[in-house]
Amino acid sequence: MDAGNLLRLDPNIVLGIVNEKLRLECFSLDELTSMFGIQDRQLETKLELIGYRYDVISNQFKAY
Name one Pfam family in it (predicted). Predict the structure, then answer.
């Protein structure tokens, strides 16, 4: 999936995709966003719309 498509999806779907990637393939937010070719802030902004922020300790997006 390319970055343009990821950022156009519903934020709830994006949350599921990125948390699965973080759990299984990527060891950090930087690694994940590099994989998709997007900036950290773009993804964080998208998921803040539904009340989620990146948690470094758990390497997941969690509700705040």
Answer: DUF4250
